[in-house]
């Protein structure tokens, strides 16, 4: 039986470009190759939006060498062709080469990828793809819409205020007045569509609030201001599945409320180790987490159920990570946000739950195939005599 070709797409025009590269190379491409169940095609989208494929693009050393731009300048761009599926074409004319893609594995973070754009491309091409569908991806990548969606399902979320770049420019004092009269400090200010904690600021004064909103609106055209949760325990839950869901382990980042899990703590070697209080944590992103989270059994189960309920309410499939905030004294669990493609697939957490990297990626591919097969059974045409009435 012919092995399917899995196109792993990563990079793109996103503030999370480099995180996407690491997810693709370490968490997706390598374990897929180790599975020996498919042909892996690395598809890199450069920061300028051009698409490329080459075996060397699956090696982290190219990106660390400082010679990536020189390498890309010698490569021909990919073009996308829709002809009974998804075909990636390198070059043109008689010297062109076509790769027929059987499955797409998006390893994209942030805008122009994780937000539903590539998923829509796959839907048009009628090819299976890993992870959340178009609608769930769109909801997940808009923090405001995600909150409104889970609230409609009866799931609690911290009080918040929404503003846009245009509305804040037109009446910044009016927004500040609404925020300070309805919400209590400390507050968090966030770009609505970004991940990896980029552009997020914790504020305790009106001056800090104004500056933080300007920072958030530098990265996005919509921002969210929300109340901090008192007595905070922050937890996150990776989940896998379409209809039948499997949670990994509830994970607790070991940071204080004042030193929230920001970009440096998540991704930079050494991060904010000295400030985090994680004396025994490993260097880098996942060394500052407690897996499983040390919570009372009832609170652990409540948080796990909240994560599963939010996953279903948003319509996630394949995999996603649900972030939650707990008021430890009140025992209240709040939905914070959802990540439709967790960085590095949160493979470190799944490993603790008994799922290896290879098992994780192959199961995600199987879920993609299952969802695609089920969608093929739906009717997509309807016979009518509508056009015959026109002459």
Number of helices: 14
- Measured as a percent range, the helix fraction is 25-40%
Rg to the nearest angstrom? 22 Å
Low-pLDDT segments: 267-286
Taken from the alpha-carbon principal axes, the silhouette is globular
* Terminal Cα span: 51 Å
Briefly note the structural class of the backbone. Answer: alpha+beta
Largest sheet: 4 strands, mixed
Strand content: 15-25%
Summed over residues and divided by their number, the pLDDT gives a mean of 90
* Widest β-sheet, arrangement of strands: 3-2-1-7
Q: Could you give the count of β-strands?
A: 17
Task: Show the helix and strand layout.
Layout: E1 5-11, H1 17-35, E2 39-45, E3 51-53, H2 60-64, H3 68-73, E4 78-82, E5 86-90, E6 97-101, E7 103-106, H4 117-125, H5 134-140, H6 143-152, E8 160-164, H7 165-170, H8 172-182, E9 187-191, E10 201-203, H9 206-219, E11 222-227, E12 232-241, E13 245-247, E14 252-253, H10 263-267, H11 273-276, E15 289-290, H12 297-314, E16 319-327, E17 332-339, H13 347-352, H14 357-376
Parallel strand pairs: 1-2, 1-7
Antiparallel strand pairs: 2-3, 4-5, 5-6, 8-11, 9-10, 9-11, 12-13, 12-16, 14-15, 16-17
Helix pairs in contact: 1-14
């Amino acid at each position: 039986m012919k092995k399917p070709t899995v196109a792993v797409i990563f990079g793109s025009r996103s503030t999370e470009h480099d995180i996407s590269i690491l997810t693709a190379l370490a968490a997706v491409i390598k374990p897929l190759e180790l599975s020996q169940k498919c042909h892996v095609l690395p598809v890199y989208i450069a920061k300028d939006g051009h698409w490329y494929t080459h075996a060397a693009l699956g090696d982290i050393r190219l990106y660390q060498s400082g010679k990536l731009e020189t390498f890309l300048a010698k490569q021909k761009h990919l073009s996308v062709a829709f002809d009974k599926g998804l075909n990636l074409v390198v070059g043109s004319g008689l010297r062109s080469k076509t790769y027929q893609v059987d499955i797409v594995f998006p390893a994209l973070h942030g805008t122009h990828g994780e937000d539903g754009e590539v998923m829509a491309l796959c839907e048009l091409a009628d090819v299976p793809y890993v992870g959340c569908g178009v609608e769930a991806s769109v909801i997940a990548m808009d923090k405001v819409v995600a909150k409104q969606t889970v609230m409609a399902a009866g799931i609690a979320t911290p009080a918040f205020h929404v503003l846009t770049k245009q509305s804040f420019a037109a009446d910044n004092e009016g927004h500040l007045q609404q925020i300070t009269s309805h919400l209590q400090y400390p507050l968090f200010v966030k770009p609505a569509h970004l991940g990896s904690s980029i552009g997020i600021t914790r504020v305790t004064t009106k001056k800090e609030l104004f500056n933080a909103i300007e920072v958030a609106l530098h990265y996005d055209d919509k921002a969210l201001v929300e109340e901090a949760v008192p007595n905070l325990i922050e937890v996150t839950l990776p989940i896998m599945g379409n209809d039948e869901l499997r949670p990994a382990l509830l994970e607790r980042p070991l940071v204080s409320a004042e030193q929230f899990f920001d970009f440096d703590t998540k991704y930079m070697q050494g991060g904010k180790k000295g400030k985090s209080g994680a004396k025994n944590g490993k260097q880098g992103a996942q060394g500052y987490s407690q897996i499983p989270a040390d919570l009372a059994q009832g609170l652990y189960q409540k948080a796990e159920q909240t994560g599963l309920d939010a996953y279903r309410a948003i319509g996630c499939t394949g995999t996603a990570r649900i972030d939650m905030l707990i008021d430890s004294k009140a025992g209240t669990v709040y939905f914070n946000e959802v990540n439709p493609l967790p960085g590095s697939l949160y493979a470190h957490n799944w490993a603790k739950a008994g799922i290896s990297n290879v098992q994780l990626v192959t199961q995600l591919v199987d879920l993609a195939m299952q969802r695609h097969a089920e969608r093929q059974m739906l009717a997509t045409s309807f016979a009518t005599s509508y056009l015959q009435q026109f002459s």
